[in-house]
Design goal:
This protein is mainly alpha-helical. Helix content is about 70%, strand content about 0%.
Length: about 475
């Protein structure tokens, strides 16, 4: 006779709009993508606008409607309501598994930034990077055992101290640099070629992908909707505030880096720290460099902490419907599925060890990012299609927020979002230049690991048990 997991009574919602906004922003806001933006010069303005209109806006609008109509369990509940629980499980499985690859790449960035504080050469040391990935993730995992309130506090502090503060300092310092009559490295020529990027070459497509996936994850905060005070009003407000904040800060940060560093000197990983170091040396404030580099690493670690509980809540909900063994679903006194978090930490540690096995840090970083992009793109397509279907199959379900324009508006918004996600799926297979693995090796590795991930989810669907958990 299987044992039922320990389920604690549902606590009264305590999450207010401010920590929810910070938790949502912490899912995607980071200085990690600013250097890539800076490498595009003035193209970044158009790239950002396209990203907002073709991706961020559709995801935010659709997530707001779905979360206020189906506030339980995020994409598992949304896709499940539209196409059944098997499809819902596949969607949340893709969201969760991509987060394993994505989080590992973010932790590698944490290692590279910490190396900037200690010794820059450590950033390419496979043992240092792997050690950072494993140690930081386990610390963040145990910190999240205290529940949503603790997660919200960590997100708020990490975003404020590790993302917003360094970004503001970078933007202000770059402003004084420019106003002081110093050489601006970015080409500010107002010509069509300099302003409008070409999406007909692979380099432009890869750059566009970097912009889009600088904003992924905004829908993950829906997993906390049931913990929010007055979610029908607070959730969409927090979502839109976080989206606007992220757009403004990352665009200005990219402009700041581009103004200070020549494009051929920008480090794609540590470019923000690199630009800040150049500015502080210019203003004879070099002592601030390690402090700010540490804060940037802390901010990225906080982003990881925010991702720890979000997707796992959807997996936990699916497990309660029979997709996982009941002993894996045990919660602690704070309502946190601790066993699933520990399994997740073990998997992240295994991925972190890939940096030791393969040796080349950049190669592993590239592989993990490509797989995350491909898996997440499929999940977004499922989410957009589900949103359209629910307008017709569940028209009477109350949504405190609705995508404007009626059903036609939903078709247009979801159509744009689906086209963008499909484009990103294809771009995920485009090898960057340089590609240290070689074309066929890289493609086979990406296809093989992506297929294995989907196959594992399909096996869990086929071996689904009858649920022994009462909701």
């Amino acid at each position: 006779m299987p044992t039922s997991p320990v389920v604690t009574p549902k606590a009264k919602p305590t999450l207010t709009i401010l920590p929810l906004t910070f938790m949502t922003a912490a899912l995607f806001m980071t200085l990690r993508n600013m250097p890539i933006m800076a490498e595009t010069g003035l193209h970044m303005v158009v790239f950002n606008l396209i990203t907002v209109l073709a991706f961020l806006l559709p995801v935010a609008l659709v997530s707001a409607e779905l979360a206020t109509g189906w506030p339980q369990n995020g994409v598992y509940g949304w896709v499940g309501a539209a196409f059944g629980k098997k499809a819902g499980f596949l969607a949340v499985w893709l969201q969760w598994t991509q987060s394993l690859f994505g989080i590992t790449s973010i932790l590698a960035y944490v290692g590279g930034t910490l190396a900037y504080v200690l010794a820059p050469d450590l950033g390419t040391n496979r043992f240092f990077v792997a050690g950072t990935i494993i140690s930081v993730y386990w610390i963040a995992t145990f910190a999240n055992f205290k529940g949503t309130a603790r997660s919200g506090m960590i997100s708020t502090v990490a975003l404020a101290a590790g993302v917003l503060l360094p970004s503001v300092l970078l933007i202000i310092a770059a402003g004084f640099y420019v106003l002081g009559g110093n050489t601006v490295q970015m080409d500010l020529t107002l010509s069509a070629d300099n302003i409008f990027p070409s999406l007909t070459n692979t380099a432009g497509l890869v750059f566009f992908l970097s912009f889009v996936f600088g904003f992924v994850g905004i829908e993950v905060s829906a997993s906390h909707a049931s913990d929010v005070v007055n979610p029908q009003k607070s959730y969409p407000r927090a979502l839109f505030i976080a989206a606007i904040l992220g757009f403004i800060v990352t665009l200005l940060g990219g402009m700041a880096i581009g103004a200070v560093l020549p494009v051929d000197k920008i480090n794609s990983v540590n470019g923000a720290t690199q630009a800040f170091a150049a500015l502080m040396k210019h203003f004879n404030l070099s002592w601030t460099i390690p402090v700010v580099a540490f804060l940037i690493a802390f901010g990225a670690a906080g982003q990881v902490s925010t991702w720890i509980v979000g997707p796992i809540k959807g997996i936990w909900a699916a497990g309660r419907d029979g997709y996982l063994k009941s002993h894996l679903l045990i919660e602690n006194e704070h309502g946190v599925p601790t066993r699933l978090l520990l399994i997740q930490a073990v998997l992240i540690s295994a991925l972190g060890l890939l940096f030791v096995v393969f040796g080349n840090v950049n190669t592993v970083f590239l592989l993990l990012t490509s797989i995350a992009i491909i898996l997440y793109s499929v999940m977004y397509v499922m989410m957009f299609i589900a949103a359209i279907r629910l307008r017709y199959t569940h028209p009477d379900v109350h949504r405190a927020y609705r995508v404007p324009g009626g059903n036609a508006g939903m078709w247009i918004i979801c159509g744009i979002g689906t086209a963008t996600a499909a484009l990103c799926f294809g771009i995920g297979f485009i090898p960057p230049s340089p590609n240290p693995l070689g074309l066929w090796t890289l493609e086979l590795a990406i296809i093989g690991l992506s297929a294995f991930t989907v196959l594992a989810g399909w096996i869990l669907i086929k071996t689904k048990r009858v649920s022994t958990v009462t909701n």
